[in-house]
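Troubleshooting log. The previous structure file for this entry was overwritten by mistake, so regenerating from the original sequence record. Sequence copied from the archived sheet and checked twice against the printout by T.R.
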Amino acid sequence: MSRPISVLRIVAAAVAALIAAVPAMGAQLTPVANGFDRALLITAPAGDDRLFVVEQGGTIRIVRPNGTVAPRPFLDISSLVSGGGEQGLLGLAFHPRYASNGRLFVNYTNGSGDTIVAELRVSGNRDVANRASRRRLLRIAQPFGNHNGGMVAFGPDGFLYIGMGDGGSGGDPANRAQNLRSLLGKMLRIDVNGRAGNRQYRIPRTNPFRGRSGVPPEIFALGLRNPWRFSFDRTRGDLWIGDVGQNSLEEIDFATLARARGANFGWKRFEGRSRFSNVGLGGGRLIQPVAQYGHSTGCSVTGGYVYRGPSIPGLNGRYVFSDFCSSQVWSLRAGPTPGGLRDISGSLGTRLPTPGGSGDGGVRGFGEGADGRLYVSTGGTVWRFDR
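Regenerated output below.
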């Protein structure tokens, strides 16, 4: 009898040591509000205790601090938006000085399916944007109805970043992501605090391809298939991208802001870290993904954020992301050396719904509150990561 008992003790000690080596997740998902129509993004201006929820059909709703949804939309541009499939109102960013200047920026596909980046201002009512103030900054022709990208966000440098997909269809048939003459398949960067020439914005002096003949100076990085979504670590300033794959692999890209300048994230030479085609790289420094997963696990990555909110032991300083089809949630150690990929779905107490007939399912987007709290949307419901 002594032999089996000693073996059991050894196994028990090994298991205990393994558990002790893995930090407790200490996180759960709390439903905040529901009844949304294909909610894609949750965000807030600096210092604001409200949440702004972007609905794909063309509206932005406000969630008040008590969890109630304001009956009147903050913005309704549904008449301007082509909303079906991957098209619609896809992005919202508040100016870093929104509290004093009331400026906000949206990204949507218009009635022709083209990408529009526009500026608006808040009205005299803080809960309603002034639709009549809309001013178009960019119009980018879209050859197909998918892979529109659509995220807009201000970087730590104060410039507006715009994530553009490769223009759609499948396999990037015109190789636009590697073509430096095209804005598609790129990360763009513009300065919205001024105008120059016939542009409604300025080109940052440090944009990597500024001054190169035939290359749009807005390009900041290239080699993206469909960045859904990108974000900046609010502590370190690093850039994180969830780039949707083609046949086999979904990827997470990471770069410090300095290294991201002029970077090439590889599509369609590579899908994830695997060779996809023999096209040449169009320029820039190749950056391989820091994480990838196959289509046995999911089908369409949903990029998230590095958690920097009120203390959740298992999430602090980790990048959190998911997949639209499986609704699994993963976390990854943030910079300067990303790693330690971990499936945290089973530790959150609630399994997020997968796509189905109810209209509420599939992780469509993440978001941050002004205080750094992390949110996730499953289309009809917004959830918060809590301790």
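The first helix runs from residue 2 to 21. Archived copy saved in two places this time.
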